[in-house]
Amino acid sequence: MLKSALVLALLAAGGTSALAAGSEDDFKAAYAAAEAANKEAGKLRNQWTTTASTLAAAKKAADAGDFDKATASAKEAEALAKASIFQATSEKTRWKDMEIR
């Protein structure tokens, strides 16, 4: 069930990232949102390494002037961070369901 929700979240993010427009302001907004979500995941002690590498790819694309790719990567990073937040919060209590009694 948890895997299904994570897959759906990532697929939804992939669908929206293809529609990303390519201005520098769009990238900055998307990158800020991704960083904020990643910071929240860090507070929950559940940052995914893929989020960090996707953020780095977004920054690299922006530095090269490819704001379409940079915005798409930033939105993907935000989706990954939100999925890690979902995982952390849902597993916070779900482990009790798997405990042998």
Structure, described:
The chain is an all-alpha fold. It has a domain at 49-96. 82% of the residues lie in helices and 0% in strands. It has four helices and no strands. The longest helix is centred in the last third of the chain and has 32 residues, at 67-98. The protein is elongated and about 55 Å long. Residues 15-21 have low confidence and may be disordered.
Defining key terms:
single chain; about 100 residues; mainly alpha; 4 helices; signal; SoxXA-binding protein SoxK
Quick overview:
The chain is mostly helical. It has helices spanning 2-17, 24-43, 49-63, 67-98. The chain contains 4 helices and no strands.
How is the topology of this model organized?
Layout: H1 2-17, H2 24-43, H3 49-63, H4 67-98
Helix pairs in contact: 1-4, 2-3, 2-4, 3-4
Tell me the β content.
under 5%
Count of helix runs: 4
Order of helices and strands: HHHH
The helix content is: over 70%
Q: What characterizes the major β-sheet?
A: none
Which structural class do you get from the secondary structure elements?
Answer: mainly alpha
| Model regions low in confidence, pLDDT < 50 over at least 5 residues | 15-21
| Radius of gyration, whole Å | 15 Å
Average pLDDT, all residues: 84
Q: How many E strands?
A: 0
Q: So what's the overall shape?
A: elongated
Amino- and carboxy-terminal Cα gap: 22 Å
